[in-house]
Amino acid sequence: MVDINRVKQLTEQDMQAVNDLIMARLQSDVALINQLGFYIVSAGGKRMRPMLTVLAARALGFGGESHIKLAAIIEFIHTATLLHDDVVDESDLRRGRDTANALFGNAASVLVGDFLYTRAFQMMTELDNMKIMHILSDATNIIAEGEVLQLMNCNDPDTTEDSYMQVIYCKTAKLFEAATRLAAVLTHQPPEVEQAMLDYGKYLGTAFQLVDDIMDYSSDAGDMGKNVGDDLAEGKPTLPLLRAMAVGSESQRARIRDAIANRTGMDHLDEIMAILADTQALEYSRERAQQEAQKAIASLAVLPESEHKAALVDLAHLAVERTR
């Protein structure tokens, strides 16, 4: 098991600067923005995406301070997507606490999410780098496309595995990809190194989301910080369900199709869990996550050996070993 504390210690100084910047740039003359923004930003979380930015920059030898602003921008974009996601999904629990929309209402959550997106773009312009602007604006647009594609796939039991993988690339892996690629841009790396850092983030983000979807069926609310079976209750055709339908019996396939199409999964949770066990769908999904993590690690071969590179390898292992 990877020791996340070792990674945190290595990034402690940079991440403190990132957190300080986030809190400073969160400020607004509008009281509700301060209240709701502080509530969700202070909720904790792994800060995985900004941590990737600072680690990748250090692994590439960066000695300046611009990576701090980049990391904060990445976190603002991510936090905005969380606010919007919880409204769309009608979620009431995130990171073990009430969601912002449960406390402040849907309208406030959507609007503060918009504030965070636009604050991120204000900060992007301060870096005065058109390539960084291009990468981040493209990533933000693709994330939005991914959310819409996921919405279209909801309650559709005929969703293909390819379509599912496209959703998780867009909605999750794309921001991981931007977080690590930008470190290469910031340090003016040659194209092959930039591509390697892009690949690392993409594969890591894919593994991370695959494990998230597995945990919907394999963890409890205390571990996950969200309700068990949330994806099932919403009729989301994630990889465990798609795999079970692909290899299960006719009756098993019918049960899962009904759960996805008609949101009846929570009424038959024990039966669906038994189907997932019988078809080894969770094991299959975890193996796919392991494969993505290994591809991420392989992408780092172009980097010189350092404690920061080792930490990037550790994060790839952590992505698939975690239980929350």
TrEMBL record:
Belongs to the FPP/GGPP synthase family. The keyword Metal-binding applies. Its EC number is 2.5.1.90. InterPro entries: Isoprenoid_synthase_dom_sf, Polyprenyl_synt, Polyprenyl_synt_CS. The keyword Mitochondrion does not apply. GO terms for molecular function: all-trans-octaprenyl-diphosphate synthase activity. The gene is ispB. This is Octaprenyl diphosphate synthase. It comes from Zobellella iuensis. Coiled coil: none annotated. Its cofactor is Mg(2+). Keywords: Magnesium, Metal-binding, Transferase.
